[in-house]
Amino acid sequence: MGLPFLKMHGLGNDFVILEGRRAPLELPRDWIRAVGDRRTGVGFDQLIVMEPPSDGRADLFMRIFNPDGSESGACGNATRCIAHIAMQAEGRGAVVIETLAGLLPAQRVDTDVVTVDMGPARLAWDAIPLARAVDTLHVPMTLGPLSDGVATNMGNPHITFFVPDAEAVDLATWGPQAEHHPLVPERANIGLVSVLARDHIRFRVWERGAGITRACGSGACAAAVAAIRRGLTDRRLVVSMDGGDLTLEWRADDGHVLMTGPIATSFFGEFVGDLALERFV
Ligand SMILES: N[C@@H](CCC[C@H](N)C(=O)O)C(=O)O
């Protein structure tokens, strides 16, 4: 019998979503890597497994894998997709999604638009984590055109670099070098930001364990927090990525970051054996 899956995306950041709530799924890391390979497998930016929540405070637990087989504590774009699934199944307008990083309340704001409370931005050097005590507002990492970044943990580690023109930076060259820099012992997602206005930034991303993606929800949160900490933008802003826009707000009272954006369903399928795929829709 095959393993059914759903393919969804948020702004072109795409996910294979598996149902693991009725019976636990054993997913060998080399299977995840094979399925994630766009040349030979279905391909995804993240593999998401829906699991039972640890207690009654959440509707479901969401486990997140990168295509290199590594696990992450956060995925903003997938959280909107998973919240949409849970809200649709229950006929509700709000749910709570549990991740390794904590409980994330989400609500529907339009048919295919969801807001997620991504929790507090963590700013201490050892919460990122960084390898040693440095100022997270001025991270001493210099690589080609990238320097003086801002470190943020949104449930996963991010380094955001401000550049005059994000399009002009060779992200495929500098992204992996920054991801694997000795200052980030758990590696990091690498963002490039150009400030367009006090309520608008351009953001490109090199995702840890995935490479360049069309959008990254947690990265957009980190980019917004970095821009606000530097005094470059207001607390509510639009983050424009290759795949489209998210609206971000960094709340002053509790430090939580609210992310609003679209979700989309691509197709249903089934894994038969290892990689063979039947498309149903
Ligand atoms: N696409 C994501 C982030 C996914 C995890 C990341 N690559 C990591 O390893 O932390 C998002 O939308 O946030």
From TrEMBL:
Catalytic site positions: 75, 216
Compartments reported by the entry: Cytoplasm
Record carries keyword Plastid: no
Function according to Swiss-Prot or TrEMBL: Catalyzes the stereoinversion of LL-2,6-diaminopimelate (L,L-DAP) to meso-diaminopimelate (meso-DAP), a precursor of L-lysine and an essential component of the bacterial peptidoglycan.
Subunit structure: Homodimer.
Annotated family: Belongs to the diaminopimelate epimerase family.
Protein name: Diaminopimelate epimerase
Source organism of the structure: Elstera litoralis
Gene name of this polypeptide: dapF
